[in-house]
Structures are given as structure tokens and as C-alpha cells.
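Task card 7
Instruction: Convert sequence to C-alpha cells.
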Amino acid sequence: MITPIPEYIRTLQPYIPGKPIEETQREFHIKKVIKLASNENPLGPSPKALLALQKARSSLHRYPDSSAYQLKQRIVKHFGNSLAADRLIIGNGSNEVIDLLIRAFSIPGDQIVTSQAAFIAYKVSAQVHGVQTLAVSLDSEMNYDLSEMLTIIKREERVRLVFIANPNNPTGAYLKSGDLFSFLTELSKIRGGSVIVVLDYAYWEYVTAQDLPEPIALLKKFPNLVVLRTFSKIYGLAGLRVGYGIGEPEIISTLEKIRNPFNVNSMGMIAATSALGDLDFVKKSKTANEKGMKFWKKNLSELGVPYWESQGNFLLVDVKRGLGLSGNDVYQACLRKGVIFRPVSNYGLTQALRISIGTQSENETAFRVMREIR
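Output:
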């Protein structure tokens, strides 16, 4: 007889990624497919990363450096030597760091706090470990209700971690410096500042707002803080799965105890190390994103489809008000025409659709398909 499956595993709804291009081609028998679903860099990988990968192919028979020494040193240099390598942990994407944090600092029956429309991997990772997610509602700007967060944390003694994406995925909203600083200050007074706050800065390189707090500055003031970063977005390395966390040495050393050896492959670390120095590519990618964002805003406005302002490389669009259809209906209709958007009903946003910014050609084609289904 099979060992009984824990209730929290049996009822788990796994994370569902954006639909792959190849799957769409097979399912609908179409050759050309545009994917604007997973917030990937439409310009592709960093050219410097590709060159480094070509040079490193002959070393594939060797195990990776489990300490990620070279990548950590490059990250330290990237931040102007304002942090030490013992404050860094390298993960198989920032997703793995999320999982490590929950495993290390909570036990079954504990709780995490986040928003009802925050990156769903927080909730999935928590449930895998028997940890409950307490989700606060969105405020009027589609952002985290920090006041409600503090109320919950004060009331619930088993809250161990708080997850905040800034800017947030899928809404694109962000917490301003003053609001976030006040929240962190108040939180530090609760239970001796023992609750760990995880700030997910996956989209930091795309930010244009001047009042979105710089993460390293926050780390210097709040020892209970962990900042997540990734190479999957602006650096164009989503397929290699490399991310990292920054925190106090005590937090990082705890995560290192439970991290699997060789959790990041050698090609991923080599590519990430080179990509950090590809400043021209980052600048080009950010410029392309700003241009694409303007295209979508202008054309959606002309079509009468509302959207929420975004600091990422995507837009959350209210297709229900604009097109009279649910987000899933628009998603399915466009999918059959070879355009993959991202429905967000799993966040409770049934009226909305998330659109990743693509190349100019991809944006034009995708908008034309959306306009035709009206």
C-alpha cells in the first residue's frame, strides 16, 4: 500500500508556466508563434554570455564549481564592492532561493505573508513544505496593502517570512521608498525583528521610477532582509536558470547548509558571469522595453482597453472592460492565432491578461491579433 500523501501535497495546485511555443505549434498546427507570456527578454541572450558559452564547451565533462566563486566575485564587483561574497547565495533561478528560504526558516504549520496577486511561486513553495500562505488584498493601485500585512504579522505568531515583489508580478505596481522603509521599520519592532522579509527584485533593471528603493541600501539598514535577483529577465538567460539572493551572512550560511551541491550548472554560471559585464546589452534591452511599452500603451488606449502602469517588462491589461471578454477568453482566442499571452485568473484577476513586451514586430503582430477578436 502506498504511504498516505500529506494533505498539503495532495491538494497542491502546481505552478503552471507560460505555454511553450513548441506546444502551441503542435496543438494548433501552426508554424509561426509569438510568445508574450513569460516576461522573457525578446532580444535573446546577452551576446557576451553566448561568446563565453562557446569558449567553455570543452569543459562540460567537469562538474561545476559548487561554491560559484567566479560568479560571486563578479556580482561583488557589479555592486562596486559594497557587499561581500559571504552575503550571496546562487540558485537554480531565484525560484530555488525562494524554496531554500522557506525550507530553512519554517516548519509545517508555520505561515508566510504575501499579496493575493504576487508571484504564485511563493505560495506553491510554501505549500510544498506544509506552510500556510496568508495573502493580503490589493490596494487601490493594485499593490500590496502594507497596513494589512503588519496587522496580520502582529496577530499571527507563526508568520516566519514575508514575500514582496518590487515591482510586482503580475500587476507591475511598485512600492515607493518611503512606504517600504516605513513598513520595514515597523516590522523590525515586531517579535524582535525575527520575521524575514524577502524582496524580489527580478525586474529591477527595467525600472524607470525614481522613487523605487535601491535594494542594497535597504540591506544595510535591515538585517532581516533578503533581496532576490535573477539572470532570467533582462540578461536573457531564462533557459539556464540562474538567480541569487543577498542577505546577512548568518542567513546565507543557513541556506548554504541545505543547498544541493552543483545546483547551478557550469554553463549557467559562466553565462551569468559574462552577462553582468554586458552593459551595452542591458541598455539596449531597457531601451527596447521602453519603446515597446509606449507602443502597447498608445494602441491599447486607442482601442479603449484599460491597463495598469508597470515598472516591469510587461503590462496587466483589463480586457473585460475593454473587449467585453474574460482574460482567459482573450488568451484562448489569440492562442489559436499563434499569439501567447498570459491569463492571470489564478491570481483572482479573471478580467485581466498579462502581456510581456516583445520586439517591435512581435508587438505589432500581437496587437493586430488582439484587435481582430474584438
